[in-house]
Design a protein that fits this description.
Layout (H helix, E strand, L loop, with lengths): L1 H16 L5 E7 L6 E6 L8 E2 L22 E5 L1 H12 L8 E5 L8 H9 L27 E2 L14 H7 L3 H13 L6 H4 L25 H15 L8 H5 L6 H16 L29
Parallel strand pairs: 1-4, 4-5, 5-6
Antiparallel strand pairs: 1-2, 1-3
The protein binds iron/sulfur cluster (3 copies).
The site of one iron/sulfur cluster has 13 residues, from helix 6.
GO molecular function, one term: metal ion binding
Pfam family, one: Fer4_17
Keywords: Iron, Iron-sulfur, Metal-binding
């Protein structure tokens, strides 16, 4: 990927030198070799910090929210999942397309920095750090869906195994088994809200979970309030989740959050589709659960 790193730096320098953008969001190396973190680049000199390597796993689109109230024109490098996040923000009226210059990079799949850190630590129970990260092993859209220019070449989907296989295993359970499964899962949540903070689809200015008057969800960490949190969040992102897997990756207790997200992705497609969120930028497009059609399925009522 050395070639791509050179191209990324060249593009950034050109855009900044021509004043096409005020700043650029990309990736730079962190303190360890298995960390490639967000880089905010404002000058041609700084552009030499940029990289594109196998650890550029962060979805950069979320960071656009830090600039939503400004006027700066922003250049942003996007993989497949980042680009869907950008479409999400534009569709949700959180960011204007005109303020963005999007540089797409078809994604070869990323490695898991935590697995790499573990492998590097010498601790027992060394996980697989050579293969793709969990989120990338389920990726069907590695190519940017929106861009002003494109670097690199098109990639095939990285999906390993059958799509939605995990969801189908949960669907095959009895309702009592499913209850047990999710009760065990939600009881481990510490309500740190990292999954919400990292999520590009969680872009409301005022989140229901922060409201105190009225307080919709209790602050205590207990099964009932945890359950409420996860079900409400899942319904808020239903039809809007761009399947970037960042929520699951950010979770400090390793909850399999993508199970719930993918169940909703599958259901929204089957009930209201064919539909997958944010695969193309269309003026006025709305996710299925944001509009009402007289022929919407309602046999669950
Ligand atoms: S989810 Fe897809 S686009 Fe995103 S980092 Fe993984 S392989 Fe790349
Ligand atoms: S990141 Fe994990 S522990 Fe934190 S609120 Fe989300 S599910 Fe719970
Ligand atoms: S719910 Fe998770 S997978 Fe979906 S958009 Fe948010 S962070 Fe990405």
């Amino acid at each position: 990927m050395k070639e791509l790193t050179s191209q990324v730096r060249e593009v950034a320098k050109r855009l900044l030198a021509n004043q096409k953008v005020d700043l650029i969001l990309g990736w730079e190396k962190g303190a360890q070799p298995f960390r490639s973190n967000l880089a905010v680049i404002r000058s041609t000199e700084e552009a030499d910090r940029l990289v594109f390597d196998e650890f550029c796993i962060n979805n950069l689109s979320t960071y656009l929210l830090d600039y939503r109230d400004g006027h700066e024109k922003i250049g942003i490098f996007v993989k497949g999942c980042d680009s869907r996040g950008v479409v999400r923000l534009i569709e949700d009226n959180q960011f204007a397309r005109e303020r963005l210059y999007i540089i797409g990079i078809p994604c070869p799949g990323m490695k898991d920095p935590v697995a790499a850190a573990w492998a590097d630590s010498g601790l027992a129970g060394k996980p697989d750090s050579e293969g793709l990260a969990a989120k990338c092993r389920q990726c069907v859209h590695p190519n940017p869906v929106v861009f002003d220019e494109l670097l690199g070449s098109e990639q095939a989907p990285h999906l390993e195994g059958e799509r939605f296989a995990d969801v189908k295993r949960i669907e095959a359970m009895t309702s009592a088994e499913r209850y047990e499964f999710f009760a065990e899962m939600f009881s481990r949540c510490i309500r740190c809200y990292a999954c919400r903070q990292i999520c590009v689809a969680c872009n409301c200015r005022k989140c229901i979970f922060d409201e105190t008057r009225p307080q919709w969800v209790g602050r205590e960490v207990n099964l009932a309030d945890n359950w409420m949190y996860h079900v409400v969040r899942a319904m808020h992102i239903a039809g809007r989740c761009v399947e970037c897997g960042e929520c699951e990756r950010a979770c400090p207790v390793g909850l399999p959050l993508m199970l719930l997200n993918r169940k909703l992705i599958k259901d929204v497609n089957e009930l209201f589709g064919p539909y997958e969120a944010s695969l193309k930028l269309e003026e006025g497009a709305k996710p299925p659960l944001s509009v009402y059609r007289p022929d919407d399925p309602d046999n669950f009522l």
